[in-house]
Write a structure and sequence with these properties.
- It is a single chain.
- This protein has 573 residues and is an alpha+beta fold.
- Helix content is 33%, strand content 23%.
- Strands 1, 2, 3, 4, 5 and 9 form a six-stranded mixed sheet that branches. The protein has a five-stranded mixed sheet with strand order 12-11-10-13-14.
- Strand 2 (48-55) and strand 3 (60-62) form a beta hairpin.
């Protein structure tokens, strides 16, 4: 078997990583950023990224960590991370998760796949939209090099074919996260990254914090450059997602009309509007602005669970417990299975395939580690065996019988005779004809679709007379039956010795029976096939006319007396 050069390259990289890095010992190299004990959260505020540190087990935040530029160089990032590790992380910290909150853009694309491409669950679209968003959205004009797409389920949708919505964001921050990961690789310190959509995070948790409502509702998230909407049924199931860009960073004058039209489209004649201000800088008061735009239905401007004045809204809901059954709508699919499958924590800016191809996987590391353990165990076993043999030999040679110099030819002859009988018996017990392997041959000769019907199968093995001490072994297979028209080509191919030889090789590889290995020059195969019209066909009987051909297949294999598996003729004494 020839191994591809790529396999050797992967093995070489894995061995190098195992020796020079902690990937084989530190599982944090392969954990998600949001699962690590210490997490650096990057929140875009204006033209910079505000940095906050979360200690996962205590839930405590450190907010005064400074800011980063989105296009910060590797040297600037290295200095920043060194400062954090020195001043903010404990000395035993073995990794850092970096979570980038994407709050500058989020566009919603509704889609409906063609009938022949229906998918019963959005899970099946999760990978497909990453690989080919143009196919999922039925729009080949989409520039996948500038936008990243993900799916978010809408379990309450009235349309069975609309299992979810596509969410798109730009790739700003992709280079920053790649540089951070590379710095971690160079420092042998795991830095795992995750870029999550702020709107999806907030919609997955905010409705659970203000209690169950008595009627359908809409959650509005007001960001600087856009607003994001989630429309829910009265039972809390998500029906529809929508985004609305802000010209000049202001809400549109026809906001009320847009909301009413959208609600009517999803058959919600009356809704309650719950609004959250997600802007990071002091702007025009949102509630006063909304009163100038909305007149005919109720709305309220809410705060984040821990108070928006203490933490930015994304950070305040980040620690909300998804498994807390005391929160509202815990029995719904929207706030049940959707959260369990972490749709709200999808990575919009993952490592590229080019980057991943240079990094050994966790399975690579485990295989190498197990291989080293197995090698060491084998070496120890060999060493122990050598020590046992040496001790046993010394013990035998120390016995009085070993020192006796008298030679006993009678006993020596007895031992030689016993040894000869053992060799003869071993030769007779060699594998030559296991019955089940012939059944394997029969199964591989004919298909299982009932296009061939075997009526007679006979197998025999015999030894030819010989005066050389070993006899040639002759094996015969005689198979008779009938065949349908669609199997005629298959049966006709058995006139070829080459075709039957290929099947013998398959049986040898499947069963390990060495007699089916025809590569030896001391083994030959003869094939004889009689294939003719089935004169016994009776069209008046059901099923008889289905087999218009009958056949007799005879196979003869000869194993010469020079072959290791020929029959020994010497008798036991």
């Amino acid at each position: 078997m020839k191994l591809e050069p790529q396999i050797f390259a992967t093995f070489k990289e894995a061995r190098k990583a195992m020796k020079s890095t902690s990937r084989a010992k530190n599982p944090d190299w392969y954990r998600e950023a949001n699962e690590l004990d210490f997490q650096l959260h990057l929140l875009p505020v204006g033209d910079v990224l505000q940095c906050s540190l979360l200690e996962r087990h205590t839930g405590e935040w450190k907010m005064e960590l400074g800011t980063l530029e989105l296009d910060a160089s590797s040297s600037e990032l290295s200095f920043f991370l060194e400062t954090i590790r020195r001043d903010s992380l404990p000395k035993n910290a073995r990794s850092l998760g970096v979570v980038l909150h994407l709050n500058r853009e989020a566009s919603v694309f509704e889609f409906s796949l063609p009938e022949e491409e229906k998918y019963e669950h959005p899970k099946q679209l999760r990978e497909l939209i990453v690989e080919d968003p143009g196919f999922v959205l039925q729009d080949r004009t989409i520039d996948a090099d500038k936008l990243q797409f993900r799916i978010y389920p809408t379990p309450g949708s009235h349309h069975a074919e609309r299992v979810g919505s596509a969410i798109a964001t730009n790739r700003a921050g992709e280079g920053l996260l790649e540089r951070l990961r590379q710095i971690g690789n160079d420092a042998n310190f795991p830095i795992r990254t995750l870029a999550i959509s702020s709107p999806l995070l907030l919609l997955s948790r905010l409705p659970r914090t203000f209690g169950e409502l008595q009627k359908p509702f809409c959650v509005m998230l007001r960001f600087d450059a856009f607003s994001f909407f989630g429309f829910y049924r009265a039972d809390g199931e998500l029906i529809l997602l929508r985004s609305l860009k802000h010209p000049n960073f202001e809400l549109p004058a026809n906001l009320e009309s847009i909301l009413r039209t959208t609600a009517a489209a999803v058959e919600l004649p009356e809704i309650e509007l719950r609004v959250f201000d997600c802007r990071k800088e002091d702007k025009r008061p949102l509630e006063a602005h909304l009163r100038d735009l909305i007149y005919s239905f109720e709305f309220s401007v809410d705060s984040a669970p821990e108070g928006q004045g203490e933490l930015p809204i994304e950070l305040s809901v980040y620690r909300v417990d998804d498994d807390d059954t005391n929160l509202a709508y815990s029995g719904t699919e929207t706030f049940g299975s959707v959260l369990e499958e972490k749709w709200h924590l999808q990575d919009f800016l993952p490592a590229s395939q080019t980057e991943l191809s240079t990094i050994p996987t966790q399975l690579d590391m485990k295989l190498l580690r197990w291989g080293r353990i197995a090698f060491r165990a084998g070496a120890a076993a060999l060493l122990a065996l050598g020590a046992f043999v040496a001790w046993s030999s010394f013990s035998k040679m120390s016995q009085e019988a070993w020192k006796h110099a008298e030679f006993r030819p009678v006993r020596s002859a007895q031992y030689a005779l016993q040894l000869n009988n053992a060799k003869l018996l071993g030769g007779l017990l060699d594998e030559r004809s296991n019955a089940w392997t012939n059944l394997e041959l029969l199964a591989r000769l004919f298909p299982t679709d009932q296009s061939v019907l075997c009526r007679d199968f006979d197998y025999s093995a015999s030894a030819e007379k010989s005066y050389t001490g070993k006899a040639a072994l002759v094996r015969n297979w005689k198979i008779a039956g009938v065949a349908k028209s669609e199997a005629y080509g298959l049966m006709e191919s058995y006139e070829s010795k080459q075709k039957v030889s290929e099947i013998f090789t398959e049986v040898y590889e499947a069963t390990g029976n060495p007699l089916f290995n025809l590569e030896s020059g001391s083994r030959s195969l003869t094939v004889n096939l009689e294939l003719e019209q089935n004169s016994a066909t009776d069209d008046s009987k059901p099923g008889q006319s289905a087999y218009p051909f009958r056949f007799n297949l005879s196979l003869t294999q000869r194993i010469e007396s020079s072959d290791p598996l020929s029959l020994p003729l010497a008798k036991l004494k």
